[in-house]
Each structure stands twice: as C-alpha cells, then as structure tokens.
Amino acid sequence: MTENIYAPHLVTIEKVRDEAEGVKTFTLTFKDQTVGEAFDYRPGQFGEVTVFDVGEAPISITSSPANKGYFELSVAGVGKVTRALHLKREGDLIGFRGPYGNGFPFGEVESNDILFVAGGIGLAPLRSLINQMFTERNKFGKMSILYGARYPALLCFRDELSRWAELENSEVLLTVDTAPDDGWQGNIGVVGSLLPKVKIDIEHTVAFVCGPPIMIHFVILDLLKMGFRQDRIITTMERRMECGLGKCGHCNIGGKYVCLDGPVFSYQQLGELGESI
Amino acid sequence: MSEMKIVNKAKLIEFLENLTPDFEVIVPWRENGNLLFGSLAYAKPEIDFIDRPLVPPKEYLLPQREELFTFTTKGGEIEVEAHLNKERRAIWGIRPCDLYGIKTLDSIFLSSYIDTYYQARRENTILMGLNCNEPCGMGFCSSMGSGPFATDSFDLLFTDLGNRFLVEIGSKAGEDLIERKANLFTTASDEDKGRSNELEKQCKQAFQRSVNLDMVKAALSKAWDDALWAEESKSCILCGGCNFICPTCHCFNIEDIADKYVQASTRVRYWDSCQLGGFTQMAAENTRKTQAERLRQRIYHKFSYIPANYNGVIGCTGCGRCIEVCPGEIDITNILGRMK
Amino acid sequence: MKKILTTCEFCGCGCNFYLGAEDDKVVAVYPCTSHPVSQGKVCIKGWMGHEYIHSPERLKTPLIRQGDKFSEASWNEAYKLIADKLRQIKKQYGSDSIAVFASAKCTNEENYLLQKFTRAVIGTNNVDHCARLCHSSTVIGLSQTFGSGAMTNSIPEIGNADVIFVIGSNTSEQHPLVANYIVKAVRRGARLIIADPRQIQLTKLATIHLSHRVGTDVALINGILNVIIAENLVDKEFVSSRTEGFEELKQGVAGFTPQKASQITGVPTEKIIEAARIYATGKSSSIIYAMGITQHTTGVDNVMSCANLAMLTGNVGKESTGVNPLRGQNNVQGACDMGALPNVFPGYQAVTNNELRQKFEKAWGVELPSQPGITVTGAMNRMIDGDLKALYIMGENPMISDPDMNHTEKALKRLEFLVVQDIFLTETARLANVVLPGVSFAEKDGTFTSTERKVQRVRKAIEPIGQSKPDWKIITELSSYLGYKMDYSSPSEVMNEIAKLTLSYSGISYNRLESGGLSWPCPSPDHPGTPYLHKEKFTRAGGRGKFFAIPYRPPAELPDDDYPFTLTTGRVGFHWHTATMTRKDWAMDREYPRGFVEINPQDAARIGVRNGAMVKVTSRRGDISLQAKVVDTIQEGLVFIPFHFAEAAANKLTPANLDPVAKIPEYKVCAVKLEKG
C-alpha cells in the first residue's frame, strides 16, 4: 500500500536541552529504524510535528543532514502545540512527518562568500545550513555569521557559535538589542548594526537572512542599500500551516505555497509573488 | 470511443438499483422543495429536475468532516490507526459544473503529494453526469467552458431527450456498468445525437448570466489594488458559505480532538474557508487582516493561482451557488464584471 | 448518511438546515433552500458550530457532589436525591423557597413541562428564564402599547420595506439572516437608518448613522417624534382611528426639540431631523431593535418609544412595517410563550386571574399557586438574603450571563441545594449539588419558536451521548419521583396538551408542522398562521394602540472622576452568549480565542495602550484584564467588551441595576476605569 501522506511517524525524544529562554532543542530518532535510515533532508526544510492528543505544528529542522541516525528540532513555546511539546521528557514519543519545503540553495551558491544574518530563533534553520557548509568547507569562501537577539538569554546555540568563530575563514559577530546588566560585553544594537563591521565582497557574496519578519524587513533594506542583487538575498517566509504539503490552502502567498515553493525564497522571488509579504 | 447508447427514462431506476449490491448508489432527491444528494436506499430519486443540489458531490470525495486517524496511547506505546474509506459508490445526476469541479479537485489532490484519503475515495467512485437542458437560476457555466454540457471527466454522461436518455461512455468503468444491464440499452441513432446537440445549443443561448473570462484573465494583473475588493466585501458576514458549497474549493483544517479520559485522540479534517479571519492567523500576526484581502484571495485563487499551478484548469465552474448561498448578497459575476 | 431537516440551535432567526448524520455523529450541514428565512443561506455558526455536540467534555452521566469533587451516579440515585431534598426543603421552608430557571435554548415542550413541574409539583410560581435579561423590556413595553409583546411582522417582509430603522442591533453579527433581508432591501433602494453608539457592519450600507450616547435612546426618539409632529408628518388617519393618547404624547415631546435631543444624545441636530423625515415619509418603515435598547434601566421606556414612533407614522399592522424586536436565543420567544415566567401561565395568561388559573388547575389536576413568583434577577438577592433555599436550573449559565458576577457567585453559593441540568459542566454547574446531563438539539425532538413567532420542528438526528437524556424526559421522570405523573410518549403529545391550553398555539400540531413552520397566533387547526400582527386592530384591550409620553431618564451609573469611561457590553457573531458551545467549536475559537476590549484610538493613546496590549478594566464590582482592540468605530469615552469569555467576564464589571418594571439589568451602561496591564 502506498504510504499515507498524513501519517505521522513515531519519533523518540532522545534528549531535551534548554537552548535559550523559551526555546528547547530536541534530539530525535525514528522508532522504526527503516524509516530512520531512509530519512534524508536539506537544510531549510521542515517537518510537521505531532504532540499526541494536542495537535500538529510545522517546525524547521535545525540539525545538518550530515549527521546520520538522529535529527534535531529547536522549538520556541509560543502556541498550543509547541507549549505542549515543551512539557515532553526524554523517552517520550511524538510524531513527525516530513521533510517538507524546498530547502536552502546549496550547490547553487558554491564558490561564494556566505553572509548569514539571523535573529533569535531564526538561527535554527540556518544552523543546519551552516553546519552542512562546514562539512564541505572548501566549496565556499568566507563565512560570516551575524547573530542577534533582544537580550542575551534569547541567544541560541552559544557553544556552536564559539566553535564556528574558531574555524578558518569564518567570523561570528553577536549583538543584543538592549543592554542588560548580566555582564554582556559584546555589541549592543539590532543585528543590522553588525553589517558595517564586516568586510563584504558584494559581488561574490550570497546573504541568508532568517528571523522575525520585522528584522528580515530591515536587514534586507540594508543589504539592498549595500548593493546586494535581489536574487542573492535568500530568506524564509512563515505562514499559518496545516498540512505542510500543498493541499489545505492555508499558507499561500499569491500563487505560491510556503510549504511547497518555500519556505525559502530569494528576495527577487518574493517580489514576484503578488501578495504583500 | 464506444458508441452512444439510449436508455428509456422509465428504466433508469432499474439500471441504478441493479448497482446497489456492489455500490452505494447516490442520486438527487427532493424533500420539501430542497434538492439534495442521498442514497438510493433512502429515497426515490428525482429524475426530472432543472437545478442542482446546493451542496455539490465533492463531499463524497472530500467530506465536510473526515476522521483521518485515531491515536491511542497504551502504556508508553502509541498506536496510529488510519481511517481510509474505500467503499464503492456510484453517483448519478452530477451536473457538468460539478464534473468540472471534480476535475479541478483531481488536479489538486492527485498530483504531487497524492492525497491518500481523497485517492481512496476517488478510486472507488463512479461519476454519472447529467447534462443541463436549461440554465439554472444563477449559473454562468457556459462562460467558463464547464457547461451546460460536459466534455470529459465522467464515467457515463446522460442527456435528457424527453422520454429517454442519451448515454455517453467516458471510461471502461462506465462501460462495465452498462454491461451489467446491457438489455436496457440500445444504440443511439444520429437523430438522437442531433437532438442532443440541439438541446445544448438551445441551452447555451438561454443563459441570463455571463462572464467575459478572457477579460477577467487579462485584468488579473491590473485589478490587484482596485477599490472593488473593499466595496464588494462590505456586506460579507464571514459565513464561509461561498467556499463550502463551491465545487472546486478544497481548503481544509486539521484538528486533533482528545478524549483525555481514554488517552486517545482523533485527527479530523474539516472544510475550511479563506473568508474567515482566522484562516491566516499565526501566533504573532494575521497575514490577511481585511475582508477586502480575503475576497481578493478567493477570486485570485480561482482565476489566477489554480490555473497557473494546475495546467490551466479554472477554479470556478460557473455553477452560481456562491451567489445563492451568500447572506451578504455578494455576486461573483458582479465582481468579475468589475475587473478590467 | 441520513439528512435530517431541523431548526438551528443558535439565534432567533430560526433558520432551517439539514444535519448529516453518519455512524451516530453529526458530520455535515446542508442549507435549506426552501425555507423563507434562511433561503439556502447559513451563518458560520450554522455551518461550523455543531462540533461541541461530540466534544469529549459532554456530560455523559449524572454527577453528585462529594465535598469538592463530583462523582458519577446513576439516574435513579440522582433523581432520588433531588426528590428527597426538594421535598424536605418544601416541607421545611415552603414552596416559595424553591425557584426554577427554565431555558431559552430548550424546546417549547421542555419549557412547558418545566413550568408545569414548578407550579404543579413544587407549588410555586418562581419560574423564570434568561428572557428576563434580554427582552423582558419588550414583553412589557409592547404589551402595554400594542397588547402583544412580540415581533409584529415577519422576517421576509423586511426585504420589501422602504425604510428600515435599526436601533440597538448589530444585526449582521447577531441575526445574520435578518441582516440578509436588510441588505436585500437596501439593494432594492430602501433607505437604512442606524442608531448605535458603535459603527456596525450595516453602517457601511446605511443612508444615515446616528451615533448617540449610550442610554439616550428615549431622548433620541423623542426628538424624532417632535420633528415628525412639528413638520406635520404624522399619519393622522392612523392616529385617530387606531390609537389613543396622542395628546399626551404631543405634550410629552413638545420640549424635545431636535436641539434638545442633540444636546442629550450628542447627535447633530440636522441628523436627527433627517432621520425623522426619512422614517416618517417611508411608504413602509420598519423598526428593528435588540439588546441595545432593551438592556437598560429604561428598557421598557425605550421599547415604548419605538412603539410611539411606529404608531405616530402608521407603520404598524401593515406589511413590511412594524416594531420588530430581534429575540436572541433560538427559543426565547417559545420559552416566554410557554409560561416560563413568574407572572403568567402558557400563552401569557395571568396566574392571578382566577378563571384562567382554574382552567390550568383542571387540566393539571392540582391546585396551583396564585401569587406571582420572582424573577431571575430578583432571585439572586433572595438567595443572598437566605429566603431562597433551592434552585433548579435547566440550560442556563447565570454565572457568566447575569450582571455583577461576584454577586451571582455569592448568591448561588448560599443555596442549600442547587441542581443544574445542562450538556456541559458550565461555570454554574460547577457549583451544583447535582448535575444532570441533558442533550443538544440534535439528540431530541421538539419545537422552537423563532423571533418572528414561527413555531418550527427540531428533529432528532443522533442518539443521546453516553447516558444523557432528552431534557423533556428528565423532567417527566423527576416528576414521577415526586409523586406527580407526567406520562407522555413523545414531545408531540406535549404539544397537543399545549395546544389545548393556549389559544395562540391551538392550531399547532406535529402533523401540521411537517409541511413547515406556523407563526402564532394560530388559533385553529386550519388557520394558516399570522405573518404580521395588529392588522385591523391592536390586540390590546379595546383594540387601540396606546401612546405613552416617555420622560428621559439617564442611565443608573454614569462615568465620574473615579470611573471616567462608559462600558457597554455585547456579543460577537462567532461566539454564542456564555460560549459553552462555541468555545468547543474550532472555527469559532480560532476566530476569537480570547476576550478583548474595544477602545477608541484617542483614548488608547491617552492611557498609553497599543493594539493587542493588556488592559485592566475596573468597575465598582470587580476587575478583569484583557487585550485592547483599538478601533475607530467606537466613540471616545466608550469601551465595549463582549461577554462570552469566562476568564475575562464582562459581567464581573456590570451592575445589577434593573429596570423597575421589567427587572432587566442595565448591561449596556456602567462606569469603568482603564489602566495599562
């Protein structure tokens, strides 16, 4: 019998980590080993997560596909399903179906410098891409990671950020919007304020921008002002989703479905969508 | 293709009843003036009628409420049980607008990720169409190329010639049905076919409502910011009716209903409506805040996005039901007429 | 799949649709194209509002309180306990220490049986229901002016009106199919006058919108009456042949010049004059009103003012005219008709009238109480005083629907014995000693009477959930435990009994209802029903309508320095009243998951509140915190809160200030203060 496209696969929570304030990272394995072995995805794709007896929610995959045998989701507890997910413990079963969505361009951006600009939990899908790129390091030029959050407790993946900063031909710049008094020594300002602090070879750089809609909006304006071409700015869109696979009609922007034709779009593609973003 | 057949009107019920051991036979029937689809087992069907049931037969393929799964937690283990419906059904009396609607739904549900539940139902459903000899009250199918006579997407297609039906065979499944009671069918004559063509022509000339589809298509790129969306949506009370009774509307919502007393939940799929405010509501914001934007979405989805994504098939069959069902008296032909 | 034609369980429009039932579940809805009101249309509640029927939270067994918790019980145990307690309380404190709240959501048969139970078995006239809270002003106001307290014309007639005056009704949201007829009329060229302190959806189609201050309806209408008299637009023929009291009215409104009315109401003088001219010169002018004018300490006055206006211009007793109160609940009209009121038997026959009472005593075989009983609003005070010991509630949730929630809670908790018969464990049921599981409209047979006085069939589509029972069965079974036999094999038999005792329902039977609804008065088995009232003469004694000169009285609690804002409460179209049903429907919940307070942008700026921010709203009765919705459709100084949301209950703030005659609370006006957070 052909697979039921709506059936969630059973997935065990191997580990739960407090990633940041209000954010948890879950390490997951498929209960059915055959499914686990066949599972592959691209950075930027997402899955529909079932918390049984509560509901389903779309969540980006944050691990990189180079890691076999498990995958990771970083989740902010903001709605009915994600809050229920935060109450789950190691050993609990949840459901997962995916991967869905188009994923980030990878081979298409080889030989370029890559500029990552992320805000808050927006770093989660980019983390997948960053780690994947680091496994094929020689295909890409300089990697610059600019990351910010409203305040330090909201910064995710702190260990990894330190690790990335140590790697060759990479740089990591962090910032927070407001100055707290817990000893933050770093930059203060919105993440766009980090842009002037990096040397960017505009002609040979592709920018990936992920974060709250308002942050994306202003960062893209900055990038355009710097001279980036519209098709070299890559971002992700969010819409209310139900099925995650282009049938329920909820997530369309103009004629495109965020779950099928996205969630990754270039800024140029966004301009062609028709409906305002 | 196979030759056309003739069956006496008086013999139709016999033909349909013969199907009942192997199919649930669904026919139009009338109660208190209302035309509805129902099982042949329950009611005597209406053979002579002009109109079409207000709720189209899409609900046999995509029900108003459909249980997809039951999840049961038993001592740390979770059982996932799917509820696919593979019961065989044969629906008679489907108007060309509704046949076209099913064609559109097939394009959407049987492509890319094939919808498991829709497919299970679709594979087990036989479609027997009935051409329209008169335009219905609000219909404008002739402008949309979807009626009043059907051209494809049927297993059998009936045309009312007075005391008999002309029967076109559209598939092997349709042919098999005729074989079951072959003695009821004779070969159609040229006169019969000519009469059918006459009726189609007469019907096409009798339409009161029309839409200039070419002008609409040309206007799509210019009408986006038109004031007409705010004006036409003024009286919309967000009832969802226009989507629910539309033969091509397919948007749905999925809810998990949990019974905490037995640690089980049912995942249910329901018809949804893009005219409701909550349709695009996210945790932090709503990406379509005004009724004007929602009305525009409905029109563009039907006339721009579906044709673009599914090889030109249109998301509107011209059946006119959305005009009948609207408590706000919103008329799609007025809206389309204003798009220039 | 079975398709069963039934009447909607939500509002007073009385739409019909088919419920699709499969595997004993309601799974589909099909509009009814032949129905004169719904005409194949359905609002969102009709389409998607029935999921609550299968909610796992449905009560499936009787519950008996054990300390803080409830435990499941058998019907026998529950009935025995109730019968014993009622018997004991009746013996110890007398019949009048017990009261019954009937249900505007339950069927006519059920309301008839419950008031019969209250009077014949318990022996008191203490039976009332939520009509007290919404249209008691109407029942009294129109009875006094016209003789009959009901909608004078039928809903379809509105579609042919030349002028429609909507006052105090957000029709698009609360009576969508009435609004449909208004839209149709406007499309045909009718002129629409709206009087509402808020801009409502119909304002977009209106010829003129009068944004008067809350509670100034009498002043507004008196101003309009003044203009009509001054400009000689009175229908003299109608006034002289069909009415009495014109001279008193003329004197009464002589001082209410449009300038004076403008001063009180805040509506520009020219608009008052224009509205008067439009209404008076319409070929057929129809007044439509609802809670906006009834829920005031001057509720009766407001209604009588509308009656004045209609009579002055000859707009009663003719097609497409009239004074049309839009009854809210699906069967509030029916519950009133069935005598679930403390002062009348079924058919508005006074309990104090010896002859009429004897008729019922003969029919029911027992002596009946002759003193009028208490109202639902009066009952609360009697509970606090300790005079009322036991309360039996069917299908109502006073904790959320009554004003001054803290007061209501205190009252209910003082009772010795509380029984609640409902389909969910509501906020009120949680306080009960015994909870009995009734059923939804889809699980029983019966009739509802819509706002246009149309009696229609409700048909069973699925079996009762769990061990729940149809509400009429519960009443008859309980009655037998108290020694009074109520032997009916079906609701149809109950209707036959009703028809024998109630003239306006005499011609109604289930057989006749198979071919469609019947509008009362329907006094004989071959009478076709009555679309509009007062055709040749008014039902008032003497046959003439009476004018009343109404003085203007301001609302009971106005804003002051401590509480500088006016709060008005109301509803939204997606949720139904205390939202016991609709908050379990995903489509309604998704649209409005939580409460909100509408604030004018200037006011919001002044108190430093942005759209979506939390606001604390405080009145002299209590406080609630909820999200701000900054809109420019509301006047400065006015805020609006819908009462559906238990965790942000508007009725925590409202006062139990009552109309002196109707005893209806002034939900529409009280004073509050607003603070950030």
Main traits of this protein?
A: 277 residues, alpha/beta, Elongation Factor Tu (Ef-tu), domain 3, Rossmann fold, seven-stranded mixed beta sheet, six-stranded antiparallel beta sheet, 15 strands, globular, B: alpha+beta
Explain how this protein is built.
The complex is a heterotrimer of chains A (277), B (340) and C (677). With 277 residues, chain A is an alpha/beta fold. Chain A is built from six helices and 15 strands. Chain A has two domains: 92 residues, Elongation Factor Tu (Ef-tu), domain 3 (Beta Barrel); 130 residues, Rossmann fold. In chain B, the strands form two sheets. Chain B has an eight-stranded mixed beta sheet, sandwiched between helices. The mean pLDDT of chain B is 95. Chain B is 31% helix and 22% strand. Chain B has one domain. By secondary structure, chain B is an alpha+beta fold. Chain C is of the alpha/beta class. Chain C folds into four domains: 53 residues, Single Sheet (N-terminal domain of TfIIb), CATH 2.20.25; 243 residues, Rossmann fold (3-Layer(aba) Sandwich), CATH 3.40.50; 174 residues, Dimethylsulfoxide Reductase, domain 2; 112 residues, Barwin-like endoglucanases, CATH 2.40.40. Chain C has 25 helices and 28 strands. In chain C, a hairpin with a 3-residue loop joins strand 14 and strand 15. In chain C, helix 2 crosses helix 21 and helix 12 crosses helix 13. The mean pLDDT of chain C is 96. Chains in contact: A-B, B-C.
Structure summarized in a few sentences:
Chain B is an alpha+beta fold and 340 residues long.
Task: Please render the helix and strand layout as text.
The complex is a heterotrimer of chains A (277), B (340) and C (677).
Chain A: E1 9-20, E2 23-30, H1 33-38, E3 46-51, E4 55-60, E5 71-76, H2 80-86, E6 93-100, E7 113-119, H3 123-135, E8 143-149, H4 158-166, E9 170-176, E10 187-188, E11 205-210, H5 213-226, E12 233-236, E13 252-253, E14 256-257, E15 264-266, H6 267-271
Parallel strand pairs in A: 7-8, 7-11, 8-9, 9-10, 11-12
Antiparallel strand pairs in A: 1-2, 1-6, 2-5, 3-4, 3-6, 12-15, 13-14
Chain B: E1 5-8, H1 12-19, E2 24-31, E3 34-39, E4 65-74, E5 77-82, E6 89-94, H2 96-109, H3 116-123, E7 125-130, H4 141-144, E8 156-160, E9 164-169, H5 172-180, E10 185-187, H6 190-205, H7 213-219, H8 228-232, H9 241-244, E11 252-259, E12 264-271, H10 291-309, H11 321-325, H12 332-338
Chain C: E1 2-7, E2 16-22, E3 25-31, H1 44-48, E4 63-66, E5 69-72, H2 75-93, E6 98-101, H3 108-122, E7 127-128, H4 131-134, H5 136-145, H6 155-158, E8 163-167, H7 171-174, H8 176-187, E9 191-195, E10 208-210, H9 217-230, H10 236-242, E11 243-244, H11 246-254, H12 258-265, H13 269-281, E12 285-289, H14 291-294, H15 299-312, E13 323-325, H16 332-337, E14 344-345, E15 349-350, H17 354-364, H18 376-385, E16 390-394, H19 398-401, H20 405-414, E17 417-422, E18 434-437, E19 446-449, E20 454-458, H21 471-481, H22 491-501, H23 510-513, E21 518-519, E22 545-546, E23 565-570, H24 586-591, E24 596-599, H25 601-607, E25 614-618, E26 623-630, E27 638-642, E28 670-676
Parallel strand pairs in C: 6-7, 6-16, 8-9, 8-12, 9-10, 11-22, 12-13, 16-17, 17-18, 23-27, 24-26
Antiparallel strand pairs in C: 1-2, 2-3, 4-5, 4-18, 14-15, 19-20, 20-21, 23-28, 24-27, 25-26, 25-28
Helix pairs in contact in C: 2-21, 3-21, 3-22, 5-15, 9-12, 9-13, 9-15, 12-13, 18-20
